[in-house]
Amino acid sequence: MANVVVVGAQWGDEGKGKIVDWLSERADVIARFQGGHNAGHTLVVDGTVYKLHALPSGVVRGGKLSVIGNGMVLDPWHLLKEIETIRGQGVEITPETLMIAENTPLILPFHGELDRAREAQASVSKIGTTGRGIGPAYEDKVGRRVIRVADLGDDKTLEVRVDRALVHHNALRAGLGLEPVDRAALLAELREIAPRILEFAAPVWKVLHEKRRAGRRILFEGAQGALLDIDFGTYPYVTSSNVIAGQAATGTGLGPDAIDFVLGIVKAYTTRVGEGPFPTELLDEDGRRLGERGHEFGTTTGRQRRCGWFDAVLVRQTCATSGVKGIALTKLDVLDGFDELKICVGYELDGKRIDYLPTAADHQARCTPVYETMPGWQESTEGARSWADLPANAIKYVRRVEELIECPVALLSTSPEREDTILVTDPFAD
Ligand code: GDP
Ligand code: IMO
Ligand code: MG
């Protein structure tokens, strides 16, 4: 049985939630493998809008197993609130339909405080994080001082872990002018929440191996986008986890041989939230129009997303680093009505043409995009459900994108609604 990894191939918000929801009809298990509630995945099913942050997008479909993998960082208070919100929309969430890996690191309140305090420091240029403590929690994981889900099960272990974390954090907080953490209050809050989290805890690696052996299909749901990857993104303007497809294995406890197809989610133009380089950014009327037609406001923070033309150089690069076999091209409908569309096909750096984004920050800053201009279309593609419904120039645009990124379109999305999706190649086909 084929297993599929879904990853964002730009700077996030490509429409992963919609595509994961659509694909999850064909899957048995939907597993998140990195990131936390910095993600904001929007699903629209028959007019009802679901906004998911920490929960996998598969929860909305009944009868599937949703998994929070060890590669994520989990704010337990946020999760319980999100479960209540989604239950309030009529979705059933039980320990049979949601499992949390026991070795998942927890985001605690001091992580969020540290994240926000650092962003407020005038002496360092800010990243523009979501302020949700993602970076500090991953730092603690690698620093071997994070509290993990399993630690909630034993009071003695929990105290030892909290003390280890606080030695580090109280020293940092003193330097930032923050009060030391109230140890007793934190322990009391953790003890209070422990049973409500532990009811979902499981040895996820084992469950996934058993599912796989039984021929079940697993859909791995990525968050963020490959250009926010801690290694391959526009560092330091990135998130603090590996976002690329290889992380699906380490972030759940399956081997890399479990991955049969990597689907890259690609928006028909480019957006980014927060600071950092963005070669094709448009600060003019075209950019404003993309933002308005595409409703480009963050699902998590409500911030306005920066908008620009499609950058084929970047997507070719991210398809390579994630081993993308096919893409889901989303939001094609947002391009309806433009007279002309531009696609970035290369960069010019110090008078030389290059075909990738260099790593050095000063080189990135000096890269200017080389554009190809394509004719636009005036007809509406919104809600199109077959190729036959697409205007000729829209098909030309899609074909040119495929050529430039060296990867075929497997799915095409033409509105936020679940069913407004064109299937070209089934990623689950063996
Ligand atoms: P994610 O983070 O990758 O899951 O994406 P977000 O949910 O943050 O942002 C994508 C937005 O675009 C959401 O509001 C979706 O409902 C919407 N969307 C997804 N696909 C399409 C599409 O094909 N056309 C339009 N117009 N909107 C879409
Ligand atoms: P989804 O899954 C877009 C961005 C933030 C900031 C940087 C670091 O919805 O695509 P962090 O809080 O992670 O330390 O912030 O990463 N960022 C996202 N941008 N979509 C996301 O998730 C993002 N998650 C983080 O804006 O620039
Ligand atoms: Mg999003």
Automatic annotation (TrEMBL):
It comes from the Bacteria. Its EC number is 6.3.4.4. Homodimer. Its cofactor is Mg(2+). Pathway: Purine metabolism; AMP biosynthesis via de novo pathway; AMP from IMP: step 1/2. Keywords: Cytoplasm, GTP-binding, Ligase, Magnesium, Metal-binding, Nucleotide-binding, Purine biosynthesis. The keyword Metal-binding applies. This is Adenylosuccinate synthetase. It is found in: Cytoplasm. The active site is at residues 13, 41, 141. NCBIfam families: PRK01117.1, purA. GO terms for biological process: 'de novo' AMP biosynthetic process; IMP metabolic process. The keyword Coiled coil does not apply. Its main location: cytoplasm. GTP binds at residues 12-18, 40-42, 305, 331-333, 413-415. Signal peptide: none annotated. Binds 1 Mg(2+) ion per subunit. It catalyses: IMP + L-aspartate + GTP = N(6)-(1,2-dicarboxyethyl)-AMP + GDP + phosphate + 2 H(+). IMP binds at residues 13-16, 38-41, 130, 144, 224, 239, 303. GO terms for molecular function: adenylosuccinate synthase activity; GTP binding; magnesium ion binding. GO terms for cellular component: cytoplasm. Mg(2+) binds at residues 13, 40. Belongs to the adenylosuccinate synthetase family. Plays an important role in the de novo pathway of purine nucleotide biosynthesis. Catalyzes the first committed step in the biosynthesis of AMP from IMP. Substrate binds at residues 299-305.
